[in-house]
Structures are given as structure tokens and as C-alpha cells.
Automatic annotation (TrEMBL), chain A:
Keywords: Membrane, Transmembrane, Transmembrane helix. Its main location: membrane. Residues 1-28 are annotated as: Disordered. GO terms for cellular component: plasma membrane. Coiled coil: none annotated. This is Energy-coupling factor transport system permease protein. Pfam families: CbiQ. The chain crosses the membrane at residues 43-75, 82-104, 110-131, 152-170, 190-207, 241-266. Residues 14-28 have a biased composition (Low complexity).
UniProtKB/TrEMBL annotation, chain B:
It is a peripheral membrane protein. The lineage of its organism: Bacteria, Bacillati, Actinomycetota, Actinomycetes, Streptosporangiales. Its main location: membrane. Residues 9-247, 273-517 form the ABC transporter domain. This is Energy-coupling factor transport system ATP-binding protein. It comes from the Bacteria. GO terms for molecular function: ATP binding; ATP hydrolysis activity; ATPase-coupled transmembrane transporter activity. Pfam families: ABC_tran (PF00005).
Amino acid sequence: MSASPGTRPAHGTPHGAEARPGGPAAAPPARAFLARTNPAAKVLAAVITTIALLPVLDPVGSAVVLAAGLALLPFSGVRARVLLLVGGPFLLMGASIGVVNWLFGDGGPLLAVGAAVRLMAIALPGVLVAMTSDPTDLADALVQRLRLPERPAMGVLAALRLIPLLAAQWRMLTLARRARGMEAGRNPAAAVAIFAGKAFALLVRSIRTGTMLAMAMDARGFGTGERSHARVSAWRAADTWFLVGTAVLLCAAHALGIAAGTWQMLFS
Amino acid sequence: MPKGGGAAVALTDWGWRHAGRDSWALRGVTFAIEPGERVLLLGASGAGKSTLLHALAGLTGDDNSIAGEQQGGMLVDGEPAARRPGRVGLVSQDPETQLVMARAGDDAAFGLENLAVPRERIWPRVHEALAEVGFPYGADRSTAALSGGEKQRLVIAGVLAMGPRLLLLDEPTANLDPEGALLVRDLLARTAARTEATLVLVEHRVADVVDLVDRVIVLAPGGGVLADGAPGHVFAAHGARLAAQGVWLPDRAPDPEVPPGPGGPVLIEARECRTRTPVELGAAAGPRHPVLTGATAAVAAGTATALTGRNGSGKSTLLMLLAGLARPDSGTVLPCGPLAEVSGRPLWRWQARRLARHVGTVFQHAEDQFVTPTVRDELRYAPLRAGMAGPDIESWVDELLERLRLTALADVHPFTLSGGEKRRLSVATALSSGPAHAPDVLLLDEPTFGQDTTTWTELVELLAVLREQGRAIVMATHDSLLLRRFTDTELRIDQGRVAVPDTAARTGAAPARKADRR
């Protein structure tokens, strides 16, 4: 790999530091472990965790994986406020699964807790990937490391830019209904009608916006053939070790579950 | 791939019909452009200027973005125009829909990646292009954090980095505030002087760009080329005709009939209003920033008030507060005088129906406020809600359609109208409660934005009549001509507060100065 100025120093490539694209900017602040890990490694780790946990009902093993995931939080570099914001719905999801299993399941409270823990253990890696990966880095990793096709990866990346735009358009549509004298008040039928009208208007706008963006991408030669890559999605030894560690953890979790006698295949 | 120099363009009897349309967008267009020429492409709105640029950029055709049928020949460098990435660069109006990547450098690199330029050659060209457009930040800068003018500069950098032989510019300043437009115009002037590329520019505000070009080609609305030659010659020979078609020309600013405003009592008052940016979605979202930090403003009857300030300064926010559509985080917006007799509650607490009868709002994107499937229903909507009798509604709507020149389009979906038609309809919907029921206050967000001179003039004359009737007009605007010709009070918003500039030594309630006719 050459000392390319495009290498994102944050990935910790050996030549990164002197070649920050921003020019003479100071060295970037040290990034948290999970943020430094190549997104492709994180995606793979999340996928093997799901594959390993999905076919098995095992409160003990799931608890080990969940605990390991939670133990990674301090190394995720995600701000505490954001963690709380994302963590709330996450805990709510786990709690509701637990309550439903407890009330309607036939396994008693222990299995209900087990079901909640299992689901959260499967979901947490995905949440961590989303929260700790820069979208650009993620797209680069998917294309360069996991050989995903360019078009969907870059398309999704471009579409991400439009989300705040759509949110602003939705707010304007809401104000405009009021300006026209439309208000649902306490009438649910009117609320549904107003919502449908706004959704249609937003759909029209977003299709138009998307079309224009696609045209701009085409005009810059996107999709005409082989692409080169301005940024290197660097794969370090630590990324390999991260995957090895995940595999070891999953084996250990299953072993513990079998030893504790709580391990059980789903639908068996 | 040939680099450097400009491309030759040749059209012979060229035409284009969009898929699913009966009529030709363009027809019988013939001209030749020499390498390195700088051409301004003019024509009335709907003459197909953008379509022509898209075709030159190779975006039209069966396996491309724009489907349709072609007629005649279009050659770029002697070959049929097709997608030849890197040779032709296109810059469109809205930078928002042209930026692809989250970071500035990555975006400038995007086109080079598509050309499969090796990595070690990408970054020197990216930095060169960023320097060339005077991009003030590093390559790591988030594209979301840029102003409109900076975004458009970055778009141009991304195009220049590819080293195009033909540079197509489709109203590159149309969506920018005056500061942003100035930034981009400076850049265009420098680029035009430096590059050897052939340049084809579409721009409504001709006066701003006429010095950059050495040739003007005017497309006729029905098809063919109306005029072709040096700018001075074309404007001397065809100026009157172009002006009649709504083209903005140097020394031919529109001259509307503007009766003076009578002035009147204050109707709405905003006191010490504070607002913050809305909550953003996503884990990476930043905190909420203050927009207005204590804005106080009054809106008087019979007066045209303009809210000015840079993009993002809070003009639209203040307009929405004064319109009673949004509520401030702190401070209040109260009806005053005659309007307080309707209800003394803060405006944002008014029932939507009551608010719409007394305070009308016209949005910048007219589509935002269309709520029915046909033009006729759109105009029926308000009088129906105001309790007007059926036959009265029909005759009133027919009259409105006639006045707006929309009779032929009465049954089409409002979204399918042209820009000028949408603008006329959106203003009409706010006024359509009937002759006796027009709202006391009419607020408009960038009402003249992107309009040709014909719609501009109609709009100003309509607003002037409303003002003469004693209604309050409030406009968030950048339009300096609108400020000069129609505005009584300018409220400039700066750093979240409202200042009255020295140039506007007029007070809200005072009678308007005489319209400054020359």
C-alpha cells in the first residue's frame, strides 16, 4: 500500500499521519478502539454473532455475549448523551420482549429474562456498528474489503446526505397545512388524511431530489466502468484479532451455556 | 482521453422530446460552437435550455437518466454526444442535490474515482481544484457544514478536478443568496479567464454574467434559434423581444405599476423571540443552535415589510413566527390593533382555520402548500372553508383562473405546473377566500425567487394592490430590485436579532415613500 494522501489517518495506517487530506491540520484526536476498527471487521463480527446466537436458546451464553458487548461501550467513543438516547429504546425493546415472554410464555421468569437477554445480545452489535462507524468509512470498507457492488454502497451514502433535507421538508409541509387552515384537532380521520397528504408531497419531493442527485452522479461519470478509490480502507492486525476475539468469545459463550445446562437449540 | 483545450460543439436541426410527452421540448436547433468559446444560452422559461445542457452532458438517451426521443444531430468533438465522463462537466442550480459525499475532499475526488484515476494522482488534483475555487476549508470539512455558496464552489471544484473540455453551467447561482452568488460569480469569472474549456452557460440574470461570455445564443420558444451573435449585437437587435418573453436583461429591469402604500396600524408584533434549530436525527447529530436570539419586529397594515439577511440568518424562521405557524422557544408573537379584536391570544395558538382567514402565507416551495389534486380544487379550498355559497365559489374561482391565466390548466395536478404557474397559484390560494375575505396580513417566503420578469412584474403589481387596500405584506427576500421598488420597511436579521438598516430610514407605520420611478 503506498503512502497515499487519501489514506484516512484515523485508521492508523503507518503513513497516515503526515498525509491528512486537510493539509497541515494537527494530528487528529486519538479515536476510540471501536471507532478505529475497520467497519468491515465490525460488520463481520456482528454477522457472526447473529449467526451464532440466532439458532440457540441459551440465557447464560447470551448473557456472556451481551456483557462483552456492554463492556465495549466505554471503548466506542460514543458520547454519553447519545448512548442514553439510543439506549432508551434499546432497553425498552429488551424489556418488552421479557414482559411478553413472562406473561404469555410457559417458561417462567427465568426464560423470559433469557429471551430478553438473547435478543439484546443479537441487536447490540448492530447498534454498535451503526454508532461507531463513519458512513463514508463504512461504505469504503464494504466496497473494498467485503467486495460489495459500488452502486448500492455509494447510492446509500449519497442518500444519507439527504435525510436532514427531508426532515426540513417535512417540517415545512406541516407548517404549510396550518397555513392553509388544515388542522386535525381531535379528529383521527382528519389526522390520517393530513398525514397521507404530507407523505405524498414528501414522496414527490424526495423522488425529484433523488433523481437530481442521481443525475449529478451520472454527470460526474458514476457507473460508467471500473472505479478507483481515493481512500484506503485499511485492514490492520488489530482488525483480524478483533474477529478472532469475537469468535473465541462466541465459542466460550456456547461452552459455558452447555456446561451450565441452559443450552438448547431453537425448535428442538 | 484528450486533455486540455476546449471541445467543439455542433448541433444540426437537433430536437428532443421527453418520454411520454406529445410536444418537442426543443426542435430544429442548429448552431456550432468553436473550441474555447464562452456562450450564454438564453430563452424564455420552458424553451428547453436545461434539456439542451443535459443532452450535451450525455445524460439523455435510452440507457441514461433522461429518457426520450432525439432528432437531428448533436456532436461534441465530432462524436455523437453520449456519456464521455471527464470530457464534459455539468454544474446545476442546486448544490444540495449535487454533493455526494460527506467530506469536501471526498466529494471533489468522487469524479476522479469514477474515471478510475489512480489514487496517488487523485489527491494532488483534488487539492489543486479546491485551491482553484478558493475553497476556504480543509478537505476534511463536512459538506453539511458549508453555506450554499461554498457548496456550489465545491461542486465546481469536483467538476474542474476532472479537467473537462466542455463546461456546462445551468444557472449556477440561482439557488444562492446574494453573498453566495457573488462568491460563485467571482469564481466563474476567474475560471472563464483561466480555462481553455468551451463554456456554455444558462443564466436568467443576464446582467450578472454578460461580461463572462463572448457570444449569446437565444432559443426560440417554439423551436429553432432566435438570435446568435455577440452580446451587444443580440441585445440591441432582440432586447425588446427577449424582455417581453421574461428574460432578465441588463438595462431592462421590469417596471411595475406600484401605487404607494397607505400605511396603517401595527397588526402583528413579535417580542424578544428566541428559537433554536430543530432536533436532528441520528447519532452523529450536533446540538441545537440558536437561530433567533431575541428578535423583535412589528408588521403594519398598508405597508410592505422585507425581512433580509444571509441564508440561515433566520429570515424564514421569523416569517413563520409572524405568520403564527410556529411558536418561539421564548418570547411571544401577538396580534395588535384590528387583528387583536379577532382574538388576543398569541398567534401560534390560533385555530388553523381562523388563522388562515386573517393571515395568509406563501411558501418558497409552492408545492409545500398544495393540498388538493387539481388547480381548481386548490382555489376552491379556501372559499369553501370560509362558507361561501356554491355558485359564488364557482364564479369567483373562474374569475381567479382567468386572471392567473390558468384556465386551460384548471384540471391538472398543481405539481405539474411550471415554476411561474406554481408561484401564481400559491399566491392565489392564500388570497382565494374571496374578494371581501383576503387575509389582513400576507407573508411570502422568497416570492420572486427564480421568477422571470413577467411573473415578477405581475406579482409585484398584485402585492401593491393588496398594500393599497391596507393589507400588510411581509416578504423574506434577497431580491434587491424588490427592495428598491416595493419595500417600505426593511428589517435586516443579523446574529439572531432584527436591525433596521440606515438605508431604510422609514418606520413601519409611516406612509410609504413614493415608488421610485425613473
